[in-house]
Structures are given as structure tokens and as C-alpha cells.
Write a structure and sequence with these properties.
two-stranded antiparallel ribbon, single chain, 332 residues, six-stranded antiparallel β-sheet, 2 domains, alpha+beta
Length: 332
């Protein structure tokens, strides 16, 4: 967590091998009394009971929300360390841990690297933040998550989720994961075809970091992790293209690749079809790229600054994580 948070969500083999190696994730349910079948990710078995118990610390925190937050923060890596100094599975800054870390397992030590201490500490800290921002207007869960990422002071200052792109994406991604319903009705074949057609119509459109919305190409923002700005380029980035293509098919998706994964249902190897979304990253928390499957092992995507919307082979990157099918919302 940060005022500068922990794990950054950024941006080889043959296609057959890569697809065959896709993670077949099991999930857990939306906010409720415990983990169930819903989110398209798996909670390591050794942490499930910890999350179940810690997720009951206060009414504002559920096991599902806590699991989604830990996925976002570290991908359940107890040794995670961020460039700004955040530590452990829940990515506590040392000063925050000093104040809010607890001895969760009763062994006489408060160890930020020990999930048995860090997971209940994370839940307790969320509850503290929920109380800190309880009088701030807007969605209470979103304000609590924003405070975990950017601090309670920033949430109070701006009267809700601060206008920081990182914090806004952080809140959106965790909320999408935590509130996702399992077994949702996915995009139909005709909707998927409409999305592919919409993406194909944009072939040759320039890449723009932060560019693209439901209405089409747009000027982007500054700056990518490599310092590239899309502010002067009208076009799409990878998730902007997906957002637009599925909007043309009547399906509303979140803005970032990680949140789009959370709003989709993974498909089993061998059942892919054109229109499915192809995600790249080492975990659900580190998804950094998305493309639209066009068939025959090819995707349509906006690859990176200096390129344009184009076809690429599915195995264009070595970290293909999952193929998933969007679940329509009721927003459009």
C-alpha cells in the first residue's frame, strides 16, 4: 500500500504450447461470509483460512475483498518488495507496519514478512481506514481502498477517491475482483464477432498511452513506465482498444487490462473463439497487456508506443497468462 502503493500493474513457445499451459484458475465468491466460486483467480491453500478469519475483522471487510486486495498488492507473494519500500504479502510500508502491524499468530513477534501476521494486520488496517474515512462522501468501500493506497488524508482532502490515476485504477481493479459473480453469462458469439469487427476497423490507428474510450480513439496521457506520453497522439493503448471494441458490441468493460481480466471468465484451452481476450502477465495482479483473439493463433492489439493497432501472434510475449471471455454488464 502506498501513498505510492506496492505492486505495479504495468504494461517463446508455440501458440499451442502456450495455450496448453494457461492457468486454469479456481476462484472464490463475491463479498460475503467466506470464499466461494467467483473470482477468476486462485487463493493459495495455505492462506485461505487466514483470509477467511481475517476477513471477518469488521463489517467493512470481507474475505473476498481481502483476497482481492492481496492479489493486487503482491499476488500472494510473502517476499514481495516494492521499489518504494513496501514489504510482504500485504505490502506495508515500514512506518505503517510499525503503527498498525500486529502479532497475528501469537508467537511474540510482529513480522511483516510472515503472512500469519501480515494478513490479519492488513484486515485490521483496512478497518482502521474505513473508520478514518467513514464521513467522506461516496462509496465507502472505494474510499477505504483508496485510503489503503494513497492514505486517509488524500481521501479526506479530495472528498473521495483522489484524482490519482494509479489510485483510481487500484480501486477499480480490486473492486472488480472482489465483487465479481462467478459463472456469469459471457459475451455471445455475435457480440464477440462485433468486437472483432470493431477492432479490425481500427487497424493502423496509432498507439497512444492512455488513449481510447468507448467512443473511439482519443488523445492519451503521460506517462508510461518508460516515460512515453500519449498526450499528443490520438489513438489507443491495449486496454483502450478492447474497451472500445466491446462497447461497439454493447458490452461495458473497465479501463485497465487487469480490471478487464477481472470482468471476464477464463476459458479452457481448446475452447477459445474469436473475440476472447488474451492477457499477459505473471499473475492476475501483474497483467500488463491485453489483445483480442482473432483466430488462427493471432490477436488484434495496440502493442506499444511507436506502433499502431495490428495483428500479432498470440505468443508475441512469453508471459501469456490467460484467455478469458467478457461478462456483459448492465451499463450499456
Amino acid at each position: 500500500m502506498r501513498a505510492t502503493s506496492a505492486v505495479a500493474i504495468g504494461v517463446g513457445a508455440t501458440t499451442a504450447v502456450v495455450v496448453g499451459a494457461l492457468v486454469q484458475a479456481t476462484g472464490f465468491g463475491s463479498a460475503g461470509s467466506g470464499l466461494g466460486a467467483a473470482l477468476s483467480m486462485s487463493v493459495p491453500a495455505e492462506y485461505r483460512s487466514l483470509i477467511e478469519e481475517a476477513g471477518k475483522t469488521c463489517p467493512e471487510v470481507s474475505p473476498n475483498l481481502l483476497a482481492a486486495l492481496l492479489t493486487q498488492e503482491s499476488g500472494f507473494n510473502p517476499k514481495a518488495s516494492s521499489p518504494v519500500g513496501a514489504q510482504g504479502i500485504a505490502q506495508f510500508m515500514p512506518s505503517t507496519w510499525e503503527t498498525h502491524g500486529i502479532d497475528g499468530n501469537g508467537d511474540g513477534k510482529r513480522d511483516v514478512w510472515d503472512p500469519e501476521d501480515a494478513i490479519p494486520s492488513s484486515a485490521k488496517y483496512l478497518c482502521t481506514l474505513a473508520d478514518d474515512v467513514k464521513d467522506v462522501p461516496g462509496d465507502k468501500q472505494n474510499n477505504m481502498l483508496a485510503a489503503y493506497n494513497a492514505g486517509s488524508g488524500a481521501v479526506r482532502k479530495y472528498g473521495g477517491v483522489p484524482p490519482y490515476k494509479e489510485t483510481q485504477n487500484y480501486v477499480q481493479s480490486i473492486s472488480a475482483l472482489a465483487n465479481k459473480k462467478g459463472g456469469g453469462k459471457t459475451a455471445t458469439t455475435s457480440q464477440a464477432a462485433a468486437a472483432v469487427n470493431a477492432a479490425e476497423a481500427q487497424l493502423g490507428t496509432p498507439y497512444s498511452w492512455g488513449g481510447g474510450n468507448a467512443n473511439g480513439a482519443s488523445k492519451g496521457t503521460c506517462c508510461s513506465p518508460n516515460g512515453n506520453s500519449g498526450a499528443s497522439v490520438e489513438g489507443f493503448d491495449c486496454s483502450g482498444l478492447v474497451l472500445y471494441a466491446y462497447a461497439k458490441a454493447g458490452i461495458s468493460l473497465p479501463r485497465t487490462a487487469a480490471a478487464q481480466y477481472a470482468a471476464s471468465e477464463p476459458v479452457k484451452p481448446g475452447t477459445m473463439r474469436p473475440g476472447d481476450l488474451v492477457f499477459y502477465g505473471s499473475s492476475a495482479a501483474s497483467i500488463h497487456h491485453v489483445g483480442i483473439y482473432a483466430g488462427g493463433g493471432w490477436i488484434i492489439n495496440a502493442p506499444r508506443p511507436g506502433t499502431s493497432v495490428r495483428y500479432d501472434p498470440m505468443d508475441m510475449m512469453s508471459d501469456l497468462y490467460s484467455v478469458a471471455r467478457p461478462v456483459p454488464s448492465k451499463e450499456i
